Amino acid sequence: MSILSLHDLTVRYRHTVAVDRVDLVVxxxxxxxxxxxxxxxxxxxxxxxxxxxxxxxxxxxxxxxxLPRRGRRRPVQMVFQDPYSSLDPRMxxxxxxxxxxxxxxxxxxxxxxxxxxxxxxxxxxxxAGHRPGQLSGGQRQRxxxxxxxxxxxxxxxxxxxxxxxxxxxxxxxLNLVRDMxxxxxxxxLFISHNLAVVRYVASRIAVMYQGRIVxxxxxxxxxxxxxxxxxxxxxxxxxTGAGGRRPVRSAESGCD
Length: 256
Ligand SMILES: Nc1ncnc2c1ncn2[C@@H]1O[C@H](COP(=O)(O)OP(=O)(O)O)[C@@H](O)[C@H]1O
Ligand SMILES: [Mg+2]
What we know:
The chain is of the alpha/beta class and 256 residues long. 32% of the residues lie in helices and 23% in strands. It has 8 helices and 10 strands. It has helices at residues 42-49, 93-99, 107-120, 137-150, 167-184, 195-201, 219-224, 229-237; strands at residues 4-12, 17-26, 31-35, 57-62, 65-66, 76-79, 155-159, 187-192, 204-209, 212-218. Strands 6-7-8-3-9-10 form a 6-stranded mixed β-sheet, sandwiched between helices. The chain has a 4-stranded antiparallel β-sheet with strand order 2-1-4-5. Helix 2 runs parallel beside helix 4 and helix 3 crosses helix 4. The radius of gyration is 18 Å and the shape is globular.
């Protein structure tokens, strides 16, 4: 895993400066939570990193080197909000995951790699033969995560990956993210508009407001002693007690 760093990053659309000279570091093996209201520029940062939004200024680097924009191997992989549109309904789960493996493999090796990836996201290997229509939203999001991991990325970006899910399965996905970080030492930029979600998984938090990072630091410090007015407002909006409670543990993912 690696260090992702943004230096003075600006993303401009025709009429909008969506990201305004942002500096942000995702340290090796850590989850950095990026939180802020809708329209604050979070997705624009994510999309710029993976080459889907225009970079009009600044640098994006991995271990100090400019991120390669082309090539089959993509060191940064992204998972999106909507697990219903991110998978081809005609393909089996196994084929969808295998398609994301960047190198060619023989049939047996391919099968065992798909099994390994399903195992990483706590899905039964028998799911390989299923189609997305047979899966719940939570299970689809696990498949999307497996696809992202298939490229053995150095950094993973998760953009609102629990926002489209029923509240009852959000906790299981958040626990999976935490487990994956522990097991794989993933470096991850974890984006959500929901501070309670971000603080559950992230060791550091960056707060975004109108295209700028207004506050950044270790999660516990930012939450205990927010410096910025906007961070205080976000905190005030989180129901008391919700953040301290652990999402329900699900050992078996079959239930979501
Ligand atoms: N493709 C686009 N073209 C024009 N404006 C966009 C585009 N994508 C996002 N924006 C604008 O950029 C700003 C930031 O959006 P976005 O990065 O999606 O924020 P967030 O993910 O925090 O909700 C918003 O004002 C949004 O309307
Ligand atoms: Mg967004």
